[in-house]
Amino acid sequence: MIKIDSVKISAKNVCDVKSYICDKYKIKECDIKTFKIIKKSLDARDKQDILYIYTCSLSLNENKEKSLVNKYKNISFYNEIKYEIPKATNSNSKVIIVGFGPAGIFASYLLAIRGFKPIVIERGSSIDYRTKEVNDFWNNNKLLNSESNVQFGEGGAGTFSDGKLNTGVKDKEGRIEYILETFVKYGAKENILYDSKPHVGTDILAKVIKEMREEILRLGGQILFNTRFDSIECSKDRISSVNCTDLRNKETINIPCDNLILALGHSSRDTNRYLKNLLKMEQKPFAMGFRVIHKQDLINISQYGKNYLDIYESLPECSYKLTYQTKDNRGVYSFCMCPGGYVVNASSNEGKTCVNGMSYNDRASGYANSAIIVQIKPEDLDSDDVLAGMEFQEQVEEKAYKAGNGKIPVCRLNDLDENLVEYKDSSIETKDALKGEYINANLNNIFPDYINASFLEGMKYFDNKIRNFATSNPLIAGVEARTSSPVKIIRDDNFQANIKGVFPCGEGAGYAGGIISAAIDGMKVAEYIIKEQK
Length: 534
Fold this sequence. Notes:
534 residues; alpha/beta; seven-stranded mixed beta sheet; 29% helix
């Protein structure tokens, strides 16, 4: 097998990459045994000739492959890495998984494939009921369900997001490709296998998760929705059972357990309070800030040029990634940027408001939004309490709730800079840019001064990177408080906490920062359990 790098095709004349390669390198299409696009990216440095850049693999007869490798510098021999789930020698271990987000889904999926009968405890609803509950909260003024919402329920917090599938995690075992292939197997579009910035979208992700759940059930797993994890029981420093509550009838359930995977989300605050006196935990850095909303065209023009619609027939909606270090050496950066997306009310607790960004697969809202967040270090909290960061998040969300009277509080950037609330622009409509009721409000009193100052300093700097990023006076919404968990549950080299048989993993435990990294962490824990059951 060979790999061909830097295959450049103009976005003006998009053509089939396989046919292009055959023409360019004098290959007969009938001689190709296998063909695969490994990566597809966009080079927009020359606005007059934007290019799609491909990396592809293909297999031919041995002599033809050698000839191409010797002739072209961008062609090399290639060995594809294929992930394999470890083999199980004993699948009788009673495994319970708390949380059915990416970490919990892939942990239970691998265990079920290898003959285990995992039991998943998920406090929220299954995806269909959860989607109805969330839409009722956004659109019909229904009360927030604090157990099933944008944060809690089948699929985890990532279900109501952009569904980004890129990650900075180094992967030599092929887990990332396995995750993407699994998503495609259960309904995602094939382009996620090679796009440099893959995203699946809330609408497609919900269908994928549902199909994966059905496969886990078919293989013998159980999923207990609307069931809250409460506590664990131990025998000789090892877990022996789990206590939980059926939230529909308030019945308490005790389930025997050999191995417990804590695939908690970053919003499981009541669980963290319980675990604080049970497991070793530590503070970790996190970040908070505001969601910033622009017309998508402003972002597109910054990358494609002002005449891009006249030159190119079809280009994807642009994303961006921005970073800045303030004069006080504090990081400010964009997070979870959503092209063609929405700002959504992502609250999960009564009396507290937080927001997130969400996109459907088509990214067609006409608006771009991103969290612009400010780094918060443990020393900023001035507390030794391991949950100080979590409690700080709660305080900020309470202030946001009061500022908006329960609705998403919004204002213009200049309002924040000048401490004004009078400005109101009706060109931003809820159906176009936000999901959930919003209200014009004063956002100055939500964060401490150092966060506001850092946010404004960063925004002004970003105006140098994307024209009119700040000077267009964008709408900002508060608050983005749940970018990551502010705590880490300590585990050893075998993924176990200080109680044997307890495996913290995923984003809520402090070991991941997105859909893919959380899924990878869940896989690693499942692999260990599969291999160690003798």
